[in-house]
Amino acid sequence: MNYRNNPQAVQALIRPTEVHKDIFVDDEIFELEMEHLFANTWVYVGHGSQIPNPGDFYTTTVGDQPVIMVRDADNTVKVLHNRCPHKGVEVAPEGCGNTGKFFRCPYHAWTFRLNGSLLALPLKRGYDPEVFNECEASHGMAAVENVRDYHDFIFCRLNPEGQGFEEFFGESLTTIDNMIARSPQGKLEIAGKPLRYMHDCNWKMLVDNQTDTCHPMVAHESSAGTAVHVWEESGKVGPTPMAVEQFAPFISSYDFFEGMGIRVWENGHGHTGVNNSIHAAYSPIPGYMEAMHAAYGEERTKEILGDVRHNTTYWPNIMVKGPIQTLRIFKPLAANKTLVESWAFKLVGAPDKLLERTLMYNRLINSPTSIVGHDDLEVYERAQVGLASRGREWVNVARLYDPTESQRKNEATNGTTEWQMRNQYQAWARYMTASMTEAV
Predict the structure, then answer these.
(1) Cα–Cα–Cα angle for 321, 325, 330, rounded to 5 degrees
(2) DSSP assignments along 217-270, one per residue
(3) Which pLDDT score, from 0 to 100, does residue 98 have?
(4) Is 281 a residue whose pLDDT tops 90?
(5) Would you place residue 238 in the very low, low, confident or very high pLDDT band (cuts 50, 70, 90)?
(6) 379-409 exposure pattern, b = at least 16 Cβ within 10 A, e = fewer
(7) Tens digit of pLDDT for each residue in 200-212?
(8) Distance between CA 419 and CA 398 in Å, rounded?
(9) Structural domains of the chain, count
(10) Is residue 137 part of a domain?
(11) Domain range spanning residue 78?
(12) What would the DSSP string read from start to end of 31-78?
């Protein structure tokens, strides 16, 4: 099937209760996702605390595009394409640092201001000004036009035209609001470097899994279940270890996850944990409640901490856990390869024990050495292999389907529904074809 310049063929891959296997295995579809989906949506770039000072930069990718997140001299955040307009060399090295007042290409020493504009080039007399001004290179490094700093969470939209930030995210931004409010000072900071974990599977499998509540008690029985069993067999002497508190909810019952609830927002966003969640029963941290009461008062503190959302999916490729202060990015590398970055945040003004719990959760659940993570990794990779089978063409997402759901917005529903997955794939089809032109 030829999908390029064929929006009808792309849209036909999504049915109300099924999605075609090509969206997970087809290389051309992956290329079109990079060109259209990741250009038409607002994609997370990084956090402002990673670049606190002018000249600080962090290199990353948006889809398959290498970019630089940099703090400009006026303290605003810019996102630049990481490409010298001269010979195409990546200007900033992988990672982070401070570039001073300008970027300098390591190949021919062309220099650029922090906003990407051309500052200087060696032997400038060798370029006729009239000729050079007609060259694309005279405009410097390409800057992403649409960048939004939402309380230090930096997003960008690569396509110059498209949906606005507020329209794209809508009510879903309340998850970020809540995570920030959990700090007595209303401020978050990135805590160290991310945990990186390679997955030999399509990136959308990981996104689907964030609101799949029918797998934990099955896939994680041998890992989380074993940890709980060992604790029980030990006689439960003393307080429950932090690790056991974090493992145990993964093997909760179907009834628990049904009652937990899922909220489905517009444009592919949604979250588990409406009424309850696996993060709702952690032991209190000494000093934290007092700090929150002093900052917000008892009623507001109760409202903030009572919101125990489990996984919030921000379409297309991040997941936020507000109550445990983590964010995961699912970076697509190929149709069958995804790099996962798991970031931890510090609640500024909160006791250090809270950060210890966050870091332990990230290490136990999201790291390459996680026993829980490897349960998921195995099923992802087996799914990637299984989808090569010619025995069936479609993947089922029909659980608790209601034909009227496409007309309903921002609703909370049964915690084991696949409505959120259907929501994601309807968004996938829409943003994939929004800038696609038909062949003539």
Answers:
(1) 55
(2) HHHTTTTHHHHHHHHHHTT--SSPPHHHHHHGGGG--HHHHHHH-EEE-GGG-E
(3) 98
(4) no
(5) confident
(6) bbeebbeebeeeeeeebebeeeeeeebeeee
(7) 999 999 999 999 9
(8) 8
(9) 2
(10) yes
(11) 44-150
(12) HHIIIIIHHHS-EEEEEGGGS-STTEEEEEEETTEEEEEEE-TTS-EE
Q: d(Cα 107, Cα 94) in Å, to the nearest integer?
A: 16
In a domain, 6, yes or no: no
Residue 157's identity, in one-letter code, is R
Look at residues 135, 150, 165 and tell me which one is the last residue of a structural domain.
150
User: At CB < 8 A and 24+ separation, what contacts does 178-181 make?
Assistant: 178/304, 178/307, 178/309, 178/322, 179/320, 179/322, 179/325, 179/345, 180/151, 181/296, 181/304
Q: State the average pLDDT over residues 280-290.
A: 94
DSSP E strands in 91-143: the ranges are 96-98, 102-104, 111-113, 118-120
Q: CATH no. for residue 103?
A: 2.102.10.10
Name the strand (E) or helix (H) holding 149. Answer: strand 146-150
First vs last Cα of the chain: how many Å apart?
A: 17
Residue 439 has pLDDT above 80, yes or no: no
